[in-house]
Queue: 4 jobs
Job 1
Amino acid sequence: MQALIPAGPAVPAILPVVLVLVGIIAVLGVLLMFARQQALHEKHVALDLRVTRIESSVASISERFDGLDKTLGVICQDGKHNRELLHIIIRGHMEPDGK
């Protein structure tokens, strides 16, 4: 006849294996978190550099627009003077010579 083996002693024998597997999974999780943190830090530094470059280029573009605004103001004034001169010339030609 076969002897019956109680189920009780088999459970504690599996417990160390389960604990080791849980420990390995936990260590891998922590290592993954540290690797992800390092990658995020590198991306943050790269984005910070990019923002700095964009801010400096925005400042230079703003200065260029200020210069263009002044130039357009001068052109607008010149256009007004040209229009006035044209009106004077037209009035001079339209009026009779006696006036």
Job 2
Amino acid sequence: MQDDTSNAVAILSSGQSLKIYGVTLYPTEAIAVISGLRSEAASKMGGVSTGIGFIGSPTWAIGAGAALGFLESVASDAARKNGLKMFAEADRQTDALLAQGLLFRMKDVTNSDRPLPASWSSTALVDDLQTIAPLSLKQQADVLSQNGLTRAELVDGHLMPIKRQRLYSHNGDEFLAVDTEFGLINIRWSSVVGYIGPNRNSPPPLPR
């Protein structure tokens, strides 16, 4: 049995309560790239309304690829057509992002004591590649030796496998993929009316 103090509890508007053991978070750097693409695309498209809100407004959320057909009909100049391409690229990267999510235990999520998923984050050790092409042959040999690698282990002759800490956070979607006593489910966070975070301590002292 899991320690209740290491889990969160969400109370839904229906009155049901859910024990949340973990939450799916996504690579923060990838989220930032997608956000930048959408922001730049929105500025190129101007004040176009898609039926799900003006582009760039809070209602224009991740997964708005369904509106791309409408956008094609209003992309009358080069800037807007460029913006449309950027939206399509952001949508493609969003699909790729969903496959990169990791499930983190609530007790390991920073700020999970607060009912604000946008502030939640955690880190994980991941495999990555680092180029050593700019280094001299001697420097390359030194770096490989320091990391216990041989030149035969390089990818494409210049990419060195490394381990590094990657930051993960909430992707901004209105639904959160969480691990509960019922298994993995997606909950709409706007339906949460009460929240008890993990690692809860004693309440603050009363005023004197």
Job 3
Amino acid sequence: MIVTLSAMLAGLAAGVFMAAVGMPLTTAMGAGGGTLAFTYGAGMTAVSYIRKQSN
């Protein structure tokens, strides 16, 4: 749950930042979506690795 929420927050922050800087909205939305996907994937990989090490 923490990974999902932090990924959503990072994606939203990246999209809003890119839009505030002056990027076109569709590009900013794409950057936010890419950030969300990367952050979620990296976070779930880290969680999986940590759980594997605990066993």
Job 4
Amino acid sequence: MLDQPLAWFSHRYLTGAGPFFSTCTNLCEEAYAVLVWPIKGLPLLFIGSLAAFLLIRIGLRRQWGSVFLLLLLTHTASQISANLLKMATHRLRPEVLFEKGYDGLGFWQAGPNNDSFPSAHVTLIFSLFWPFAVVFPRYRSWLLVIPGIIGIGRLILDQHYVSDVWFSSWVVIAWAELFRGVGLACNLVYHKILPKKLAN
């Protein structure tokens, strides 16, 4: 595993970039705090995404409006999965490695600082951008700039290992593809198969 060697390399040689990535992380946290501002007990993100889906996809019948439902489902499922995995794996954070070291990969260890896998920050931010990257592949590179900065920042700031960040991204991608596949299947049934059945 390259986790520990890369963590040591970052810790020794890349800490000078820490203030930049810390600032970026703080800005994203503040922006997300606005997105989850409660309105009648529900987060603004939930209400806004659902309203946008109903208006654009259902009301205006614009195909791309499905991105807001994909966003809502992917973000929610990814966050729940990440939290459950943290509770199940109890992986030590890199700071424990730097302070006193440990044997193995650091999974299923007693606390504190045993919630490294996967990265909640990466899951959170990536799940907000990846649905748009799926629906608008033309702009995918630009859409992944902020998630990329956050992911690299978690390494530079000694908060996570590479595998924590990498796995977080794939959790989001897996959920997005699952919901996208279900959406395509439902669309096929509604527009192709069901009309033929009714015609017969």
